Amino acid sequence: MLTIGQMARLFDVSTKTLRYYESAGVFHPAVYGRENGYRYYAPSQIDELQRILWLRDMGVPLESIRSLKEQGALSDEHVLRNKLCRHATGLEREIEDKRKLLNELLIYLKQPIMENNSMNSTQGAAVKPLVKELPAFTLIGMEYRSSDVRDSIPMLWGRYLPREDEIRGRVNYEASYGLCLPLEDGEFRYIAGVEVEAGSPVPQGMVSVEVAAARYAVLTHTGPVAGLNATFRKACSRDLPESNLERIEGPDFELYDRRFTGPDSPDSQVDIYLTIA
Question: Which residues on adjacent β-strands are paired with residue 141?
Answer without folding.
Answer: 193, 207
